[in-house]
Design goal:
This protein is α+β, with helices and mostly antiparallel strands. The protein contains seven helices and three strands; from the N terminus they run ααβααββααα. Helix 6 packs antiparallel against helix 7.
């Protein structure tokens, strides 16, 4: 539980979790996505863990779970305005990471790897270009 006297702890409680920032970033970059699309794009997350993280983000009102009736019922996830409001802070963290932490990170060279990231991907996220 977050300390009530520390705003940063309270904020981190909402986004901490192995896949939460990844989910938020993917929804920001791609718009509404279905569960299977998120799982496929992330690649290394189990269905159980993805479901848990999505439920927690939904409970914190960071994402919206929307049932779409179009030739059958399907569920899409999208960012709420609260979820969108954290994007500038995540961009700042991404810039900080590039300057200070990414020095020792091994980026997959195989473009088919689900975690492969190009500099263009990073620049697009940080600039907010679609």
């Amino acid at each position: 539980m977050a300390r009530v006297d520390c705003a940063l702890d309270a904020a981190m409680e909402v986004i901490e979790g192995r896949w939460k920032t990844t989910i938020i970033c993917m929804l920001y970059m791609n718009g509404p996505m279905r569960f299977s699309q998120l799982q496929s794009k992330i690649g290394t997350v189990s269905a159980r863990m993805l479901s848990k993280q999505l439920k927690e983000l939904e409970a914190d009102r960071m994402i919206l779970r929307n049932e779409v009736v179009k030739g059958g019922v399907r569920v899409e996830y999208s960012l709420t305005s609260k979820g969108e409001s954290i994007i500038p802070a995540l961009k700042q963290l991404a810039c900080w990471s590039l300057d200070n932490q990414m020095i020792n990170v091994i980026v997959p060279e195989d473009e088919s790897h689900p975690l492969f990231v190009t500099q263009q991907d990073v620049d697009r996220f940080v600039s907010g270009e679609d």
